[in-house]
Each structure stands twice: as structure tokens, then as C-alpha cells.
Design a protein that fits this description.
The chain is an alpha/beta fold and 617 residues long. It folds into 2 domains: 192 residues, Aminohydrolase, N-terminal nucleophile (Ntn) domain (Glutamine Phosphoribosylpyrophosphate, subunit 1, domain 1, 4-Layer Sandwich); 341 residues, Rossmann fold (3-Layer(aba) Sandwich). It has 20 helices and 27 strands. The longest helix has 21 residues. The radius of gyration is 26 Å and the shape is globular. The relative contact order is 0.09.
Length: 617
Amino acid sequence: MCGITGYLGFREAYPIVINGLQRLEYRGYDSAGIVLTSSDKKLKLYKTKGKVSDLKEIVKTKDITGNLALGHTRWATHGIPNDENSHPHVSNSGRLVIVHNGIIENYDTIKKELIKRGYTFQSDTDTEVLINLIEEVQIKNNCKLGKAVQLALTNVVGAYAIAVYDINKPDEVIVARLGSPLAIGIGENNSEFFIASDASPFIEFTRDAIYLDDEELAIIKLGKKIRVRKINDDSIVKPNIQELKLNLEQIEKGGYDHFMLKEIYEQPSAIFDTFRGRLLADQGIIKMGSVDNNITKFLNAKRIIIVACGTSWHAGLVGEYLLEDIARIPVEVEYASEFRYRNPIINKDDIVIAISQSGETADTLAAIKLAKSNGAFVFGICNVVGSSIARETNSGAYTHAGPEIGVASTKAFTTQITVLTLIALKLGHLKGELSNSKFHNYLQIMKSIPSKVEKLLTVSAKVEKIAAIYKDAPNCLYLGRGYNFPVALEGALKLKEISYIHAEGYPAAEMKHGPIALIDESMPVVVIATKKGHYEKVVSNIQEIKSRNGRIIAIVTEGDTIVKEIADHVIEIPETEEAFTPLLTTIPLQLLSYYIAVMRGCNVDQPRNLAKSVTVE
């Protein structure tokens, strides 16, 4: 949710940390702050409600020198967005400083106890409580800061990624994590260190990084190797230094007005990268090591349970259609946030597929742990190498979408569907549900999808004109059937996320069971009406809308003539098999949401109240 970054080394820290905050702003953007310290041991703390750009304005006339700095961009949990609740926070003595991503659930109990001991608080945050708890533990036990942080964290309940330092020791920072991601970049010969919620703030400085696991604490000291230990049992952990594959160009806009638009246009290459090396169409092979190595489990699975949240949940719904239709394996799709609390029935011969773009979604991680505790085999689909879900699952597949900075997910959705399609095709063929000829035909069609998406993106000018007509609509209805019902849900989500227009997705046939009452001349209805799958029935639904003066935007297959005569607007997609249509029909819906949001003056990449990665409940 929040983004934290920091620097300790020989360079001036401010430019590195402020630039890092701008790259992390997709994680939260209702307030921002930075603290700097140099060898003179003076604290320079600046923070404000608003965005990182507001923080930059404030510090223009301030002293920003120092070789140690921590920064924070916030997505509010405890306490409204204001200057006082912004991070970093300082202990009562003014000596200890902290930035924090996560939630301390028992903060109120701790706060009451600290007040009894004479502590006072300037904010409403759980984070200020935590830094004062660390100070109290250090005083009480007369111990070093690292030990004080460790002891304090054994007394808190919740999730956190924290960075803490003592202004009297400007060559040392303590970091720890539980449930929220944290990466440490390592400079040559340990001459400098970088701290961040992900690696994007420091990729131009180092390729070497450590990703802390849950319940790990690291002591970072200039000139020394990083020391990592477990928080609960104090055991020493040998840190795993990974080489970063990210590059700077991937996290810049590249000439596009917004990251979301860039990421929409990256989908042909993202889909190709996701099946590259896996889809060997000319050889008639799908090669997925993570599935091949566990093929017996997949083929013998009595049931597959897909757990996910938001857009990933919609991808999971498409996966349900794919796996049941092509591989004939029963599938249930669960909201991860509900799955963990409803005492689900999980069997040892179940496979649980967990889907998350970031690999850090708190509810999905909790669902994984529940499934594993019940003996299920857990397979992860995520986009971020080294993420928590990648480490927690028994096996899995990366989507290779590249960094997705826009909060509204686009290329993550289509690449998640790509992975699920490959799995369904592979299992369907091995189970004998797909003949050799049909399997080989499907592989060739799958191979053609990136070029078809590329072609489809040329309709953007037409979509922009449609957006101009409906940008002021107060509501919008999205309808689809079969494979495209989840796409209708996803299209509605995109519109409400970034334009703040109320939108709902429904199975087209369900329209008669309530939503039809809403239809009049001011209600735009987006209907996915491809020629594959239930076409005649969808045409009937369109006629029902038209007879009630509804305005129809239809997504149709190239060459369609019937819907063209009925609908107010038609957007054509290239011909393909029904199972592959979600990879195409979603593209114009993404563009429609984007252009409407831009025309309404909304912040497309940073919609209000949302953050990219939901790492807290």
C-alpha cells in the first residue's frame, strides 16, 4: 500500500530518495515525507499531505544535505491524510526515526500502555506507536537498536515493512518485514545501500538486491555485509543476493501521456513474452517446467480452486471457463479475502492456483497459507520475480508482463489469462480432451494473438470518439456471456476505478433479472457480442435493450452485420476461437475507460483511494 525508500552511503541522499518516491507513488499518494541525517547528527524532517510533487515544493528552500535518508509515500490506513499523519515518524526523544508500510493491528492497546508510561503522540497513526514502542524497549533493555526492533516486533500483531535508524548512528539502518515487501540494494564493496518497497528506486545504481522474507530483520551498516536474522527465534539467515532483471526504460513512460496507456499498448509484446519459450506452436508443444514437474498432481486433481482479488479474480473466472471447457477439470473461483475466513473445504488432492500481479496481495497470501496448511498443492501466477507469493507457493509461473505502474491493471490481466490458457491447453491435450489436430490448431491460433492485439489497438481513435459521447454518463452497464462474462466484469471495474463512473458487469441473460429496470436513453450499455458462443442469444439481449431506448456500444467480430444494424456504436475485433476472445475483447474496454477518464480530468495512473498493491487487509 504505502511506498518506502531509503539510502545510506557516500552520495547525497535526497535526489535518490525523492526520485525513488516518485517511482513508488503508484503504491500510495495521499501524503509524502522525507527525513535526512548527516554526520552532524541533525534531523531534517519534511512531510506533507498530498503528492510527492507537493513535498518537492516544500523542500525547495530547505536544507536537504545528508548521506542518510528515508522517504515515504502514503496510502492512509490509521489516521486521515494530513501533515501530522504523514511519515516519517519520530520517537518522543527525537532520536529514532521510522517509515512503515502495513498495519499494526494491536496499536491501540500498545498506545494506551505507552501513554501510561508518559509517552505523548502527535499523530493518529499506528506507526508513531511502533517507533515509541521500539524506543521504550531499547531503554528498558539497554540494548542496541537492532535488538530493540526485534523485541518490539515480537509484541506487535499485523503486517509491516519498516526501516528505522538512530540519528546518533548515521551509518546504520535496521529494516524488517512481515507481509509487506522490502528490497535492499547493495552497492559495490558495501559502500552504499538502498532500501525500497520494490527495486524500481535503485535500478540505475545496482543490480544486486536482497528481498527479505517474512519475519526477517536486517542490520545494514556502511562497509559491512548485511546481517539478516529471524525475528522470532533470533536464528541467523544467509541472505540470498539476486541479480535484478529490471531496466530503467521499463519503468518510464516512453513518450506516452500515462503509464496506463503505455501498458495497454505493451500488451502484444507482454503476451508474446509470457508464452515465449513455453508455446512452441510449430513443434506442437507447450513447455512449462512448473507444470511438467508436477504433472501427476495436475492430471489427478479432483478440483482446482483459484484464489485472487480484483482484476486477478476476473482472470481467474476466465481460467474457470478455460480449465473446465478444455481440460474438463472442476474449478471454483474464490475471492481470496472471503476464502480465508469462511472455513473452506480443502482436500489434499485439490490444486489451489493463486493469482496476483504484485505477488504481495495480503489476502491472497493468507489464502495460500491456509491451503498449504490443509495439504493442498499451491501453484502461483504472478508478475514480480522474488515476490512473496512466488516464494510461498509450491510451484508457479511468472507472467513476464514487465513492470505495471498504472494502478488500473491492464497487461497483467491479459498475461494472467495467457498463462491460464497455456495450462488449460496442455492439460486438455494430456487428458485426451483435445485431439492432436485440435490441440495443434489451438497452438497456432494462440501464436497469432499478439499480432491480433496489435491490429486491435489501431481502433483507439474510434474508441476515443465514442468516449467523448459518454464521458458524462452517470452509470454504465457491461454485458457478456460465456468466456466474455468475466471481461464484462473487468470492463466495468476499469471504468469505475479510473473515471469514477458507476458501472456494473452482468451475464447478458441476467439483465432481465433486475438491471433492465435501469435502462433508458441515458444509460450506455457495453455488450460483448462476438460471433463465437451464444451469439444469437446476445443479439436478443441487444434487441431488448434497444427496445427500451438504451444506448449500445457493441464489441463484435470483424464482418458482423446483424449487430451493426442495431447498436449505436460498434468496435470490431479480429476473428478467433471463442476461448481466446477475452484476450481481444478486453482491449477496447481498457481504451474506453482510459479515454473517458482522461476527458473527465481524472488522474488515470493514480485514481483516488486506490493503491497498486494491497498488502494490508
